[in-house]
Write a structure and sequence with these properties.
The protein is α+β, with helices and mostly antiparallel strands and 276 residues long. It contains six helices and 17 strands.
């Protein structure tokens, strides 16, 4: 993260430091969990580099030491959830990730429990916020298996727009990928990430989705060689493309991308280049 000489909004600084997304930071401020120089923080507060920020009483590093932008690509399997913990004891994607000495992994665009495929996680809350924000229109691509082939008029309707409970939605593109027997595959893209949007669009025209896989998020694709439940860390060149996609500059980083040596202690990683 770059150092800053001018004051910036508290939630933006904390997001960039990897404490959490901007929205999450705003909730924490409203809940009274944050203070600046010993005083309770409020929405709209701006801070400078020398000020001391605490979350739940603990000092948070917000300067250069917090500025190591790391991004993981995780192949999410079915039956894992994208929250940090679950009262029901279900497995979460965080169970498989490398531990951080500072900051935490932030999910970029959650997948529901039955959806598999590409999941990005980053230590940079500002990057996560921009990648998910509707205004950046980052394209997501999904492989969708449905029961039976859908007629052309229904496909045109999905691209023209379908009214859902949370407003009008549509696919940017739909590509027929064929299939065998009763199952048929399509690849679809869209530029927003509403909850269960892909499933709800197909359901709106009376078609049931039997399998859903996210295969691309912006410029990053799911490698064919990356098995479910495994992750790899994106190298600097790929992270730079990801940041450029949301108009962010190059992040300073002393951290070298993880390289797998095949040992059991590193069994959760592979080093396959992005591409599908």
């Amino acid at each position: 993260m770059r150092s800053y000489n001018m004051s910036e909004k508290l939630q933006k600084v904390l997001a960039r430091a990897g404490v959490g997304s901007r929205r999450e930071m705003e909730r924490w401020i409203e809940q009274g969990r944050m203070s600046v120089d010993g005083k309770r923080a409020r929405i709209g507060d701006r801070i400078e580099a020398y000020q001391v920020v605490r979350v739940d009483g603990r000092v948070v590093t917000t300067g250069k030491a917090a500025g190591r932008c790391r991004v993981l690509l995780y192949h999410k399997p079915e039956n894992e959830i994208c929250t940090r913990s679950d009262p029901a004891g279900r497995p979460t994607v965080f169970d498989h990730l490398p531990r951080l000495r500072q900051g935490r992994w932030i999910v970029v665009g959650r997948l529901d429990i039955n959806t598999t495929g590409l999941l990005l996680l980053t230590t940079d809350g500002e990057l996560a916020n921009r990648l998910m924000h509707p205004s950046t229109e980052i394209e997501r691509e999904y492989a969708v298996r449905v029961l039976g082939k859908v007629d052309e008029s229904a496909l045109r309707q999905l691209q023209a727009g379908v009214s859902l409970d949370d407003g009008l939605a549509r696919f940017e593109t739909i590509r027929d990928q064929g299939g065998e027997g009763a199952n048929h595959w399509y690849h679809v893209t869209l530029k927003e990430g509403r909850k269960r949007e892909v499933r709800n669009l197909w359901q709106a025209i009376g078609v049931k989705v039997s399998r859903l896989i996210r295969v691309r998020y912006g410029p990053v694709s799911l490698p064919r060689s990356l098995r479910a439940g495994k992750w790899h860390e994106l190298d600097r060149a790929v992270v730079a493309r990801l940041r450029a996609a949301v108009s962010m500059g190059v992040a300073s980083s002393r951290h070298k991308p993880f390289r797998w040596d095949g040992s059991k202690t590193q069994r959760h990683a592979t080093r396959s280049p992005p591409g599908r």
